[in-house]
Amino acid sequence: MKRFVLFATIVLFVFGLTACKGGGGKYADVKDVMEKYVAGNEAFVTALDNVKSADDVVTALTALTKVTNDLAPKMKAIDQKYPELKDLQNPPAELKPLMDRVNAVMGKMMSGMEKMMAYASDPKVQEAQTKYQEAMAALK
Whose CA is closest to 65, among 119, 140, 14, 129? Predict the structure, then answer.
């Protein structure tokens, strides 16, 4: 489970930073995709805050998996279109507010994942985690 949390955190951070675009400006398409991705992760964190059963965890993971699967092709295209976004230390000023949201949601996600661990041995949760991990792997 710790590997899952670490993997999810790293992938979210990396793809969050490389997928930021929407609105106007050079990175408008990145902002649009990133807004959707961050919103999906924020909803996941909120759902984890309210977890009371394994079914709640499955519902949260399933929703996040859907967001990830829906955005994966766009995120891959953005990664190819904007290789300069691989520099995670110095994002363009246009993307800085979204990067700040990514960082904020990452901190919240770690505490939410701890709540999820209470249900880690449930087969339904394990299946949902596997599907989420597959969705994340598709981003590479």
Answer: 129
117-140 pLDDT, tens per residue? 999 999 999 999 999 999 999 887
pTM: 0.77
Lookup: tokens for 133:
């991990």
Find tokens 């408008």 and name the residue: 28
Q: What is the CA radius of gyration of the chain?
A: 15
Say which DSSP state 53 is in: S
Residues 6+ apart with CB under 8 A from 112: 44, 45, 48, 49
Check: CB of residue 109 under 8 Å from CB of residue 42. no
Residue-range domain boundaries for the chain: 2-137
